[in-house]
Amino acid sequence: MDISIIVPLFNEEESLPKLYEWIVRVMKENKFSYEVIFVDDGSNDRSWEVITKLKDKSAKSKEGAVRGIRFRCNYGKSAALYCGFKAAEGDVVITMDADLQDSPDEIPELYRMIKEEGYDLVSGWKQKRYDNKLTKNLPSKLFNATARRVTGIQLHDMNCGLKAYRKEVVKNIEVFSEMHRYIPYLAKNAGFTKIGEKVVQHRKREFGTSKFGINRFVNGYLDLMTLWFLNKFGKQPMHFFGLVGSLMFFIGFIAVIVVGGMKLYALSNHVPAMLVGVNPYFHIAILMMILGCMLFLAGFLAELIIRNSPSRNDYLIREEL
């Protein structure tokens, strides 16, 4: 099979028929063998009924295949993509939103970039957007600038829903929590480094309203820091906690010696001096020593946990002879 198209959705009953017809037309024009996987993320409208009808229609016309996955409740886009990736069978996997803001006409070129130019992942870039500039465009630019700085991946729109993947990529990454925003970073960390970008058309939403609020930028920043930390220290937590803990303990220990030395010097010269127990610097130094010990022990315990983890030696093998 050439292409698997994964469409995560939540309450998009009005847009699904038009989106499906558009996909079918593009696939027929380019003679692709394909499947469309709709992942219903706990919709409370008629989205699942529409998907069922589309599946029946596909079976009768024998044009591609429609598959549906339905969650019992709203788990989020990352969960929908994870299940879609797990079910996909095509050589190239395309993800796109169900709100008609992503154009299926972009699929042939995305497919070509994966198959002919050898990209592992191609992300769309909605260079010209029709969103509200204050609530979406500006925060999006700041978010992407931060993501480029932290991840080292030079994408203008890392969170674009329209992406193309080599099948091997989606089978070797795990999308969890709200990490769908950073799939290119997950792919890079898994060893898939040939990541490209394509300018794609952004269309105005025709039906319904956006399912994402301004809080996604706050959550996105926190998720980015989590991914960065896990990538850098996830396998070797002692390198972070042990180092920071040791430095804090050492600084606190030196501070205690300095405070004690100053007290002894004052006594030996018969100079009035503050009691060590009253000196605030003494308490700060002791606190640093205690925190340093706690951080060091946290790193030590984390290393013990990792040593007993069944995934401690999970490495991605590219090929064998």
List the helices and strands and how they pair.
Layout: E1 3-9, H1 16-30, E2 34-40, H2 47-61, E3 66-70, H3 77-87, E4 92-95, H4 107-115, E5 121-125, H5 133-151, E6 163-166, H6 167-170, H7 183-189, E7 195-199, H8 215-233, H9 238-268, H10 280-307
What descriptors fit this protein?
single chain, 321 residues, alpha/beta, Spore Coat Polysaccharide Biosynthesis Protein SpsA, Chain A, 2 domains, 7-stranded mixed beta sheet, 10 helices, 49% helix
Structural summary, described in words:
Helices cover 49% and strands 12% of the residues. With 321 residues, it is an alpha/beta fold. Strands 3-2-1-4-6-5-7 form a seven-stranded mixed beta sheet, sandwiched between helices. The chain has helices spanning 16-30, 47-61, 77-87, 107-115, 133-151, 167-170, 183-189, 215-233, 238-268, 280-307, and strands at residues 3-9, 34-40, 66-70, 92-95, 121-125, 163-166, 195-199.
